[in-house]
Amino acid sequence: MVDNAWLIPLFPLASFFLLLLFGKRFGSRSAEVGSLFTFVSFICAAVVFTKSLHESSYKQTFNWLTVGDAQITVGFELNPLNVLMLVLVSFISFLVHMYSKGYMNGEKRISIFYAYLGLFTFAMLALVMSPNLLQLYIFWELVGLGSFLLIGFYFHKQEAKRAAKKAFIMTRIGDMGLLIGMILLFWQTRSFEYSVIFQAVEAGDISQSLLTFIAIMIFVGAVGKSGQFPLHTWLPDAMEGPTPVSALIHAATMVAAGVYLVAATYPLFQASEVALLVVAVTGGLTALFAASIAVVQTDVKRVLAYSTMSQLGFMFLALGTAGYVAAVFHLVTHAFFKALLFLAAGSVIHAVHTQNIEKMGGLWKKLRWTGPLFLIGTLAISGVPLLSGFFSKEEILLSVWDNGNYFLFTLALLTSLLTAFYMFRLFFSIFGGEEKTPIHAVKESPMIMWLPMIILAVFSIGIGYVQTPWFGTFLGDWLTNENSHHEFSLWLMLIATIVSGIGIGIAYILHRKSSLLTEGESSAYRVVANKYYIDELYERTMIVSTKAVSRSLVYIERYVIDGFLLVVIRITRMFAKKATKLQSGQVQQYGAIAFLSLAVLVVVYLVAGGYLR
Amino acid sequence: MNDYLLPLLVFSPVIGMIMIWLMPKTEEKTLKQFGWIGTLMPLLISLFLYQQWLTGVSLSSYQIKWNWIQFGNLAMYDDTLYTIDFELSLDGFSLVFILLTTVLSMLAALASFYIKTEWKGYFLLFLLLEIGMLGVFMADNLLLFFLFFEVTFVSLFFLIGRWGYVNKEKAAYHFLVYNGIGSVLLLFVIATLFVRVGTTNIDALTHILNVGDVALLAPISPFLTDMLCILLFIAFAIKLPVFPFHSWMVRVHREAAPPVVMLHAGVLLKIGAYGMIRFGLGIFPEQVEKLALLFMIVGVISFLYGAFLALVQTDLKLVWAYSSVSHMGIVFFGFGTLNDAGLQGAVFQAVSHGAIAALLFFLIALLYERTGTTELNELGGLAEHLPIFSGVLLTAGLAALGLPGMSGFISEFMAFLGLFKEQMLLAIIAVIGLILTAAYTLRAVLKITFGKKTYSMTWRDVQGIEYVPIAILFMVIVAIGVYPMWLGQLVQEDITTWLLRIGG
Amino acid sequence: MTSVPLSAYLVLALILFCIGLYGALTKRNTVIVLISIELMLNAVNINLVAFSKFGMTPAITGQVFSLFTMTIAAAEAAVGLAILMALYRNRKTVHIDEMNTMKH
């Protein structure tokens, strides 16, 4: 089974082609087709997962291209991190496939939707199996394509079009960082293989400054994909896509690819302290920055999007402070509870047909399933004890504390507080309070939608126990292949709990005073509500300057290039006009000129003694 | 059989020409079918050659050499001196371009079904153009190369000027003047070499000029060699074209009929790349090495310049035209790196751009056929009515912007790999172009397919025979993108030989 | 008998040629110009005959060629004079600088 693991991504690919070519014939049954293929690939992944719990990593490659004396290979690799991602991605993808059958019910282009989901799942699964950077880059771009297609699924909407384009270009800016880092590594080590690169790094074959540069460039790729500051602006806009897509791509899997990338190339970062610091600071700042924006958003999906950015920032913070296991752990738990939250939010949107939380309220009684499920997700992300988010967040806090950077630690705590606050603000304003504007009957979503949510909820509660101070650190042991000693720090847990409690408390008090959603008048509020004007800043600097360059080049094209041509034409014409005057009709004059020219040529020949050498 | 296969390949379109010539010029349908059938024969022969190569037959066994022209009576010194033979030969590198030519000619002939007038003249010139292109890639001496080069030049001039959009005549004259200058430079170089060295055979020239064990009748000073090399490169840079010689190509792409542009962008621009690599690198390796930095800089400028300009065009044809300028920049700097990765990237990019540009301009033909316009501002939301067309356009756009899994990526990647090795800083600047490529492609494609519909009519979607070019070109694009080895193996050997000449 | 050297023939031919050239380029009367051209042709004839006798490989070819030249010269003179007559009938002049209508 393990040596046939390359089949896992091919099932969704088959589903993609099948649905793309024969989608019309399947009609609404496309949902079943897509789900079936994803399910098969999940089962395979699960089998591989159980097998590899005991086996060491497995790798298989074959030649793809020859560059001079270097062989570029493709293949697949199964190490603990890869297998973990494999099973996580296929599982959540399958659940989202299922959920979408209910959510996208009645959509005309449902076969296309499922085809795109298949394409994305294929690329993501292949991405996490890549044994080398080039292959990773290939699928890195392909998941971007899947994301782009799904964001632009409602192609007739101007916003969707703009968001899709923005997502593609912003992430491509990041990708270029990865490309640069990857190529530089290639010329240092003559290989894209992780193993060869890591060996070279360990042996110290690469100079420290170059290594730092390379690591930072690779991190730029991660920043672009994971929506970290300063390349984050596409992620909130990406919420224009259908909600299940947001759950799968822009919460659980693709955006986490950045974290995966840094984790997969971790030895590179470990070799450079500066790079680690950059990762940590970027992560920490994004965490706080995004959380602060989430506090004032009124669109349920955007709150969750900023929350995702903030949580991914947390993971980078962990990676930057040597908390490799903590980051991966949080990646896993976050995938479950954030997917749950998005799906629950989708269920709410499905029921009330709006995304604006100002128009919601009092839905607790109406949505019997969605309400409690959303609450579980909210509790998990807020870090309430005994749920999964609590353990992973505690782990991150611990690694930051151990690192000894108190500035970052403060950032992390503040973010925790804000997280708890904005999540409960969201929860209370959707489910608490009075019912608003009952435009039409609010109905609970069908079973096909709440069943996946229940599964996710179970995992959101329970997945944390794979890595706890009390029952053992299975995940860490497995990932790092050694028995990691885990310190027990009760005080940190207490602080984390208290901080979350304060956040929830504030949310509750404000909710009671029903001033959760009141808009502030202060300039600080306006700055945050406008997302710190980052979009506007980019608009005014990058886009405007690019356009300016283009425009000025248009003038160069018109006046210099074509102008030069025009000048040449004019000169030729002028010369021709003058030259025609020579044709006077006087035969004797012609003869004289011809004779004189001959004479001159003969003299030149005599003087030069031959022709041009 | 081996002795006649190459001449047969070159002149096989003549059969189609005779068939067309015998038809009255009013028989529209038959003429179009004959035109298309005429391109099948070279296609089959070239596929046969490829199949032979796969089975391990040496391509050099097809080489032919017939006595042709002899100047003066110097047989007493050396019977190869001042003779020009009719010699054709084949290697992996030229086979790649021959396959590109035959496949694209067949597809362009299909796309030519949209030609509205004077089918007879059109298809006669079209097949003549194919003869020229095939000859260019097979000619084994410079004079023969030049003759075939001029055949493409003349037939293309009429194809552009006769069957195009509004300003076609003007575009044709631009083409004539620029390429005329290029031809003059080329002829000057060829004539000088012939007079000084006494042969135009490429292998012989390479040997005599670089090994230097033969005393020349009239020796060439280093200065003159440098000048010849520069002139040769200017000639091919005009053909390629790179900044600042590109303006004729933009006009041609805007004004010529789409099938002609398919061939022009797909094959004829590549003659520039082919000539640079085969003749430039072959005959003047030392000089090329001296100029390498210049090539890289000009290539990067071209790449960025085309990308920036494509960003603000309002006509889809112009977007693709500037994108061609930009992509040819990649070929140029890939060539300039003079290392394995870069050269391979340049060849890959030449082939890949051939397929992608042909596809893009085929889609222009489809678009214009339906909507009567290619102005971005007049189009929008086509995905609603023409989902398949939009999907294909989007995919082709993605191929053009270098999405992995398609040919554009691997060629850009290799070229950049090479550039990073030689000039890291320049490469980092050039990377901006990759972002711009994404920006302008998506801008144009999404403007047409996404967003609000600007107006609605009952256009039909892609149908029937229109699928054939789309499917074949996608197959080529994806085949190179997914498994580049098959193309790499064809050219690897030749690249190694060229590099030995420089480094050795 | 002291033979006349080759250079003497050549100098004579040169002088004749120069006179012819001078006349062809400067005289205004077309008839004179035609006569001057005949003079130049004859200079060439002298050269041909001289080389046929004194050349590196003496042969009869030179003399044959001079006969050819004479024939051609006769034909040329006939055609030239005919054109001249036609012109004179039209323009009432034989001045060469008035025959300048063949310009752009």
From TrEMBL, chain A:
Tell me the Gene Ontology biological-process terms attached to this UniProt entry: ATP synthesis coupled electron transport; electron transport coupled proton transport
Q: Which residues form the NADH:quinone oxidoreductase/Mrp antiporter transmembrane domain?
A: 130-419
Q: Which Gene3D superfamilies match?
A: 1.20.5.2700
Membrane topology classification: Multi-pass membrane protein
Q: Which Pfam families match?
A: Proton_antipo_M (PF00361), Proton_antipo_N (PF00662)
NADH-Ubiquinone oxidoreductase (complex I) chain 5 N-terminal domain: residues covered = 64-114
User: What does the similarity note say?
Assistant: Belongs to the CPA3 antiporters (TC 2.A.63) subunit A family.
Record keywords:
Membrane, Transmembrane, Transmembrane helix
Its recorded name reads NADH-quinone oxidoreductase subunit L
Domain of life of the native organism: Bacteria
Q: Where are the transmembrane segments?
A: 6-23, 35-54, 81-100, 112-130, 136-155, 167-186, 206-224, 245-269, 275-296, 303-329, 335-352, 373-391, 406-428, 448-468, 488-510, 559-576, 588-612
The yes or no answer to whether the keyword rRNA processing is present is no
Give GO cellular component annotations, separated by semicolons. plasma membrane
Q: Name one GO molecular function term.
A: NADH dehydrogenase (ubiquinone) activity
Q: Which InterPro entries match?
A: NADHpl_OxRdtase_5_subgr (IPR018393), ND/Mrp_TM (IPR001750), NU5C-like (IPR003945), Proton_antipo_N (IPR001516)
From TrEMBL, chain B:
Query: Where does the chain cross the membrane?
Result: 6-22, 34-53, 93-115, 122-139, 145-163, 175-195, 215-238, 259-279, 291-312, 319-338, 350-368, 388-411, 423-446, 467-486
**Where would you say this protein principally sits, based on its record?**
membrane
GO molecular-function annotation terms? NADH dehydrogenase (ubiquinone) activity; NADH dehydrogenase activity; ubiquinone binding
The entry's localization annotation reads:
Cell membrane; Membrane
Membrane-related topology note:
Multi-pass membrane protein
- Residues annotated as domain NADH:quinone oxidoreductase/Mrp antiporter transmembrane: 139-436
In the UniProt record, which is one GO cellular component term? plasma membrane
Mind listing the UniProt keywords for this protein, alphabetically? Membrane, Transmembrane, Transmembrane helix
Name the InterPro entries for this protein.
Answer: NADH_Q_OxRdtase_chainM/4 (IPR010227), NADH_UbQ_OxRdtase (IPR003918), ND/Mrp_TM (IPR001750)
In its UniProt record, which GO terms are filed under biological process? Answer: ATP synthesis coupled electron transport; electron transport coupled proton transport
The domain of life for this entry's organism is Bacteria
Signal peptide limits: none
Which family, according to the similarity comment?
Belongs to the complex I subunit 4 family.
Concerning NCBIfam families, the annotation shows:
NDH_I_M
| Record protein name field | NADH-quinone oxidoreductase subunit M
TrEMBL record, chain C:
What biological function has been recorded for the protein in this entry? Answer: NDH-1 shuttles electrons from NADH, via FMN and iron-sulfur (Fe-S) centers, to quinones in the respiratory chain. The immediate electron acceptor for the enzyme in this species is believed to be a menaquinone. Couples the redox reaction to proton translocation (for every two electrons transferred, four hydrogen ions are translocated across the cytoplasmic membrane), and thus conserves the redox energy in a proton gradient.
The protein's topology relative to the membrane is:
Multi-pass membrane protein
Q: Which domain of life is it from?
A: Bacteria
Q: Output the InterPro entries linked to this UniProt entry.
A: NADH_UbQ_OxRdtase_chain4L/K, NUOK/Mnh_C1-like
Q: Which organism is it from?
A: Peribacillus asahii
Q: What is its EC number?
A: 7.1.1.-
Q: What are the annotated GO cellular component locations?
A: NADH dehydrogenase complex; plasma membrane
Protein name, per record = NADH-quinone oxidoreductase subunit K
Similarity-based family = Belongs to the complex I subunit 4L family.
